[in-house]
Amino acid sequence: MIENIPRILIAADRSSSGKTTITMGISAALKERGYAVQPFKAALDYIDPEYHTEIAGRRCRNLDGYLMSDADVRDVFTHACRSHENGGAADIAVIEGVRGLFEGLDAFSDVGSTAQIAKILKCPVVMVINARSMTRSCAALIKGFCEFDPEVQIAGVILNNIGSPKHARKAIEAVEFYTGVPVIGTVFRNPELAISSRELGLIPIAKGRRRPEDLAGHIQKMKDGITGGIDFERLIGIADTAEPFAVPPTTVFQKNDSQTAAETTAGAKGAARPAVKIGVAYDEAFNFYYADNLDLLEIAGAELVYFSPIHDFVLPEVHALYIGGGVPDIFAKQLADNVSMRASIQEASKKNMPIFAESAGMDYLTRKIEIADKEGNRSSFEMAGVFPCTSAFGVGRRIVSYTNGVFESDTPIGKKGNTFIAHEFHHSVLENIPTDTEFAIKITRGVGISNQADGMTVQNTIGTYTHFHGVSYKEFAENFIASARNFKDLL
Question: Which domains are assigned to the chain?
Answer without folding.
Answer: 2-246 (3.40.50.300), 257-490 (3.40.50.880)
